Amino acid sequence: MPTSSMSLTAQEPQPHRSSEPGIPYQRSSHTSISSDRSSSPVEASSISGMRSAILLKKLLKVEEVLDAVPPRQRRFKSARLIGDYEKPWLEKTVTEGKRKKWSGRTWDSIIFWTSIAIGFGLGGIMCYIGFTSVPKNSYCLMFEDDFHNIDTSIWSYEIQRADGPSTGSFEWTTNDPQNSYTDAEGLHIVPTLTVNSTNITPAQILNGYTLNLTTDNRPDGVCTSDDAGLSCSMYSNITAGTIINPVRSARLSTKGKKTIKYGKIEVIAKMPKGDWLWPAIWMMPEDSVYGPWPASGEIDLAESKGNDGATYDGGRDSIISALHWGPIPQVDAFWKTDGKHNIRRTDYSESYYTYGLEWSEDYIFTYINSRLLQVFYLSFSKGYKSMWNRGEFGKQIVNESALHDPWSQTGNPATPFDQSFYLILNVAVGGTNGYFPDKVGNKPWGDASLTAPAEFWNASSQWGPTWGPPEERGMTVKSVKMYSQGACGSPPT
């Protein structure tokens, strides 16, 4: 009986085109068996046996891998020498025949320690030269004031309107206890708003009021300025843009009472905080021997600005020292003789610092806390025969005229800083002389403006909140010491 022919074929899974959209190809998950009609049970059994054999073989290989023993690692063996052996580099000498030779290690030690000794020696020589070169002047204490009160045998109040043309500041100074007083901390010099410390109204500040500081029996003091016209009266006129000075403050000086010509001063003080405040520790000539300012000089021991140093370059984190000098105000050469010191991570309103000055016929310098931290130094006798030559004023023409030399005839290179000066302590506010540069820190007025005080006052809502309580917006002076050069009892220089 003829049998029907049947073919049985085992195939590897083949990729085939999917019937689902977006899946173009996929591999079949089963073994395809093709036949003419159907597969017999015997043939299916054979295929199953083949699969079992293949699976068993794979399992045996896995078991062999798991049972395999890892290769033994070789034990580390040190290459260090064992036992006693020669170490010639540790010996001081090496014998070569009949001669003994220093070892290389010994020479290294000799060179090293010799270099150290030479370095210390040179450093010591430099320190000695530096120490012996520092002047060791003798001084006599003129006065020391710890400000348990305001001693009128030492201090006088300067009562006047601002400071005239030299600064153009916006305050007027008084002897009112609101503006200067003492307590356990020392002397406080405190600026106050005129409308808060007088009976002058905000409207009168701007228009229709005249203030005469020469009137007798004034509660805030009678004007002490020699310029009764400019410095002792003021009036407000809204059309002209002139106003009553919007701030009051204090200025104390030793004029006519305590002066020095060469010597030393130390002031322990804490600077104020508040926008446009201008604290100053400075000196002016007692007799102005060489003419009006700046021909007779000015010594700025320490000045600062109350603005926050974090937002204003050169604020209360900076101290400035300078000498002002020149035959006329237009050629003041302070920029040739000034210095500045910045402090980091704090400012000079946070605690007390010592501001010092040493001044002789040969040199002048200022310092903070000790002579090691100098802010400014000038040697009078080095490089120039006179301050006139130092300033090169002979090359300058002002108003089509040559300048007059007021100093060289003395033959002293320190002139005009060869006369008696007195000490001043004050807190000014603003100014038009360039101390507060235009367009820096949102400055609300312009130096060239004829209405600068009014512009400053109209912006009080900006700077007013930066002024804290009196002990913060004022300069606090803990003590002042003034020395004259020379031993006590010696004739004055």
Automatic annotation (TrEMBL):
Annotated SUPFAM superfamilies: Concanavalin A-like lectins/glucanases
Domain GH16: 236-378
Molecular function (Gene Ontology), one example: hydrolase activity, hydrolyzing O-glycosyl compounds
Transmembrane segment boundaries: 110-131
Biased composition (Low complexity): 28-40
One GO BP: carbohydrate metabolic process
Keyword entries, A-Z: Membrane, Transmembrane, Transmembrane helix
InterPro entries, A to Z: Beta-glucanase-like (IPR000757), ConA-like_dom_sf (IPR013320), Glycosyl_Hydrlase_16 (IPR050546)
Bias (Polar residues) ranges: 1-12
Chain intervals for the UniProt region annotation (Disordered): 1-45
Family in the record: Belongs to the glycosyl hydrolase 16 family.
Name of this protein: GH16 domain-containing protein
